[in-house]
């Protein structure tokens, strides 16, 4: 065979081999699909909880997106929905441009009851995303996708954006697939954090976070009435005055009848003594000891600069599944002015997290307020700060759980601080405070699939190009790239000619 036919045969075989390789690569990539998130803050990497919710989907979900390609949120939402579709094939997405697909948009807008308005020549849909499953639907509004943090305009790195799209979309999917909302009742009447109040003792920031998980919040004043059966969980947040025996008995009956309870106790000082909560003896019967002390974190690595005795970070978490997300994510929980909450000997309770081994639980309040005061110093230890209790049925002679008559008692969490629920700490994505709130709400309401994804903050930096920059870019695109292709082509031609 002469040289020229042999060269043609080699070219043909090379082309066929290249085609086979391309087909194989496409087949492998389709079987092992993987996307990479190269953003600095991991903006489009789904959280573990979102992935769990998506993998557990047992029904079809349709997502309608009413965004034009020129809108600022389009690319972010498109990229995020691709991540959703990569996890499950039960999600279908239909993109409808209100300007380019006017007829289709009008049909769906009438179906879902959506309004729109004109911004110049562009039609903006009031609701950019609608999630449906069967007969259920949920609307995601614009402010739930991307929120500007106006308080950060003076930051050196530029002001921030809260990317809430994942929280909104996953919450909407759960809403249309998991049934009716859950209700949390919040105690009132003892100086607790209040729903609808203003200032540092407002519960509204927590309520907003719970709303993302489709949990309704309602205030309830404990007096002579029983806690309503409609309350899936009952929160007592930082009471300033003690509960009476009768009121504690009401809470006890609620827990015994299957209710779920969250108690957070701040150390309330009065004449250098801690005010009792009214729950001390009742909790001891369940193996929980609320300390009459102030916790002081002495480990500088856990202290917040400038607040050595107030704010401190907790990274020493237990093994309970309630804190699994915190342990995997890291970051820790930020607390302030806490008291100890420990497990009594022989109790069925479990510690959720502790301080560092260098902390002390100071029972001498005068010494806690003045470290230079006289007296024997308290030895340091890893002070427990939160415990959980759950009814464990006794075992019979056959080593099987003994069934009890009536309802099974509910679940209980006790924390020696309430400041971890403050708005600024819940909004901080570097902390695990929001994860602890979400996990606690899900565990107490016994909705294990409940999720809450902390907002991802990123810098809203504009790309500013001068005339010189534009000229350089034009030179590279119009001159250098074609020239590089020409040189490469000439090199191939020369090698074949030789």
Walkthrough of the structure:
There is one protein chain. The protein has 498 residues and is an alpha+beta fold. The chain folds into four domains: 1-32; 48-171, Glutaredoxin; 183-392 and 407-456, 3-Layer(aba) Sandwich (Rossmann fold), CATH 3.40.50; 467-491. Helices cover 32% and strands 22% of the residues. The strands form seven sheets. The protein has an eight-stranded mixed sheet with strand order 10-9-11-12-23-22-20-17, covered by helices on one side. The longest helix has 31 residues, at 467-497. It is elongated. The two termini are 19 Å apart. Mean pLDDT is 80; it is low at 148-154, 156-163 and 450-462.
Helix content: 25-40%
Outline the biggest β-sheet.
8 strands, mixed
> What top-tier CATH class of the largest domain fits best?
Alpha Beta
Number of helices: 13
What is the 3D form? elongated
Strand order of the largest sheet: 10-9-11-12-23-22-20-17
Work out the count of structural domains. Answer: 4
Total number of beta strands: 24
Any guess at the CATH architecture of the largest domain?
Answer: 3-Layer(aba) Sandwich
Q: What is the CATH topology descriptor of the largest domain?
A: Rossmann fold
Fourth-level CATH superfamily of the largest domain: Class I glutamine amidotransferase (GATase) domain
Oligomer: single chain
Q: Low-confidence spans: pLDDT under 50, at least 5 residues?
A: 148-154, 156-163, 450-462
Binned strand content: 15-25%
Structural class: alpha+beta
């Amino acid at each position: 065979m002469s040289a020229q036919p042999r060269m043609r045969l080699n070219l043909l075989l090379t082309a066929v081999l290249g085609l086979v390789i391309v087909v194989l690569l496409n087949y492998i990539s389709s079987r092992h699909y993987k996307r990479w998130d190269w953003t600095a803050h991991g903006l489009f990497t789904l959280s573990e909880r979102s992935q769990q919710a998506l993998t557990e989907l047992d029904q079809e979900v349709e997502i309608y997106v009413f965004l034009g390609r020129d809108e600022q949120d389009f690319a972010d939402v498109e990229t995020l929905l691709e991540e959703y579709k990569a996890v499950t094939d039960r999600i279908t997405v239909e993109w409808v441009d209100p300007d380019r697909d006017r007829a289709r948009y009008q049909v769906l807008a009438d179906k879902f009851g959506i309004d729109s308005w004109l911004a110049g020549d562009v039609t903006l849909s009031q609701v950019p995303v609608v999630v449906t499953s069967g007969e259920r639907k949920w609307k995601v509004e614009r402010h739930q996708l991307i929120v500007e943090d106006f308080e950060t305009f003076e930051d050196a790195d530029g002001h921030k954006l809260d990317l809430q799209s994942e929280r909104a979309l996953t919450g909407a999917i759960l809403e249309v697939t998991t049934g009716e909302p859950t209700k949390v009742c919040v105690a009132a009447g003892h100086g607790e954090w209040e729903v609808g109040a203003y200032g540092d003792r407002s519960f509204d920031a927590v309520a907003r976070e719970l709303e993302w998980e489709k949990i309704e919040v309602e205030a309830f004043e404990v007096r002579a009435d029983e806690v309503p059966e409609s309350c899936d969980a009952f929160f007592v947040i930082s009471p300033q005055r003690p509960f009476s025996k009768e009121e504690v008995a009401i809470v006890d009956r609620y827990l015994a009848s299957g209710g779920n309870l969250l108690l957070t106790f701040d150390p309330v000082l009065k004449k250098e003594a801690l005010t009792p909560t009214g729950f001390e003896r009742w909790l001891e019967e369940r193996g929980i000891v609320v300390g009459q002390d102030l916790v002081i974190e002495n480990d500088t690595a856990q202290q917040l600069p400038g607040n050595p005795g107030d704010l401190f970070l907790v990274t020493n978490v237990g093994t309970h599944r309630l804190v699994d997300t915190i342990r995997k994510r890291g970051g820790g929980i930020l607390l302030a002015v806490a008291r100890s909450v420990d497990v009594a000997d022989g109790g069925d309770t479990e510690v959720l997290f502790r301080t560092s081994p260098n902390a002390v639980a100071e029972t001498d309040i005068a010494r806690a307020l003045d470290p230079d005061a006289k007296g024997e110093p308290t030895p340091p230890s890893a002070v427990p700060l939160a415990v959980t209790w759950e009814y464990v049925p006794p075992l019979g002679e056959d080593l099987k759980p003994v069934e009890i008559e009536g309802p099974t008692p509910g679940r209980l969490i006790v924390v020696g601080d309430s400041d971890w629920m403050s708005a600024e700490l819940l909004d901080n994505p570097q902390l695990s405070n929001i994860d602890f709130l979400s996990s606690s709400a899900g565990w107490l309401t016994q909705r294990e699939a409940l999720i809450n994804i902390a907002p991802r903050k990123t810098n809203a930096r504009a790309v500013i190009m001068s005339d010189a920059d534009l000229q350089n870019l034009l030179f590279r695109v119009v001159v250098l790239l074609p020239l590089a292709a020409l040189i490469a082509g000439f090199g191939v031609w020369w090698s074949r000619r030789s």
